[in-house]
Design goal:
- With 452 residues, the chain is an alpha+beta fold.
- The chain has two domains: 114 residues, Glutamine synthetase, N-terminal domain (Ubiquitin-like (UB roll)); 315 residues, Creatine Kinase, Chain A, domain 2 (2-Layer Sandwich), CATH 3.30.590.10.
- Strand 1 and strand 2 form a beta hairpin.
- 46% of the residues are buried.
Length: 452
Amino acid sequence: MTYQEQNQAREAVGRLADEGIDVVRVVYPDFFGLDRGRDIPVESLPHVMNHGLAFCRAVFHTTLLGDVTPVDGGLASGLPDIVVVPDLATLTALPWEPGVAQCIGDARESVDGPMCPDSPRSVLRRVIDHVSELGVVGVVGPELEFFLLRPDESAPNGWARYGDHGGNVYMVGRIGDPDSQLLSMLRQIKALGVHATAANHEFAGGQFEINLLHSEALDASDRAFRMRAAVKELARVAGLHATFLGKPFNDEGGSGFHLHISLVDSSTNRNVMGDPNTEDGLSLVAHQATAGILRHARALAALANPTVNAYKRLVPDSLAPFLVDWGLDNRSAMVRIPPERGESSRLEVRLGDASANAYLMSAGVLAAMYLGVKDGLSAPAPLEGYGYDAEAAEQLPSSLGEALDALEADTALTEVLGEVFVKAYLDFKRAEVARFNAWVTDWELREYVYHL
């Protein structure tokens, strides 16, 4: 740790103590985008900055049920450590945990060593470095949808949709949110500093959306990571459960994770996506970036739709993408260009499932945009009308296994993301697909067991 960092750590301890904070929760994202970490006494922060916090590297390869998947660098290497070093720029108090501040950490091979390539935050940093070669910075505005559930012993898995009444699309107040849970969450995450710009009831009963301010990609991903964790924590405080699973119900639509994304000149800080002299008001860079996303869309699906469940959402007539296409202010397209131009020119990438890891999805989309601009790609004509004609464009993968194959085959994209990470991710996710394929589901029992 440098002398300047030592001073920053000591100053942070004094500031936090003055605010009544005696514990720092150091967290980092796993492959799922969930927060792993450790609580430390505030006075230990300078020591942790010097030495880091050791964690088993195989945490990145651990399933949601706690099983370790055999991935290179983990089990076969004897379960070695990584070191997580707090990023003091991310220190912030947790409004619902008195006396606790949270700090996001960077996973490194050693305290002074390189970033751990398995770490989603490291993957995004790597892509940002590539994008900087173009003289631009990626600016991202995340939008996340989720369901709130209430305990119900009679419901499947013991949970039913909270406030489950049809027709409350974009309704405000207690008609769609009887206990004002969304309002409470909005206030709490405002105090957390994730810069939510809006929150609303979505299409389905118990479904909500929170939009975040546009900022540079790493900061935006940090805030999306924090927001998702906060929503789940605040739901628990209220005796509810929040799920970002993309398609949790057969009788309702799914939840998405949309990215509004633009490129900004790194020297002038001006948006480079708009051009008032073109017919559609978009610059050549915007068209090339769009073409990059289309070229690499099938591989991107593996990062943006990272579960077996996610592909039950990517179907026709669902307001979720089905085809590899783009359109001008067209919500049935995979990439929508909102109508604003000038400094507000941007792409809305609608590919993402709500379960996606914010860091990995941002990294994938930015990598595809980088390749589109670097390679001077051209986009096809934009979609006209309703975008579910299977003959109009290439179809997105219909399963996680198909998407993983597409990611492996896309060598240009994997080089930008990092080959070590991509191999680990493919091995981890293919093991997930294999477990699912071996599992006897309730559908199979309902469909077959009585007659066969």
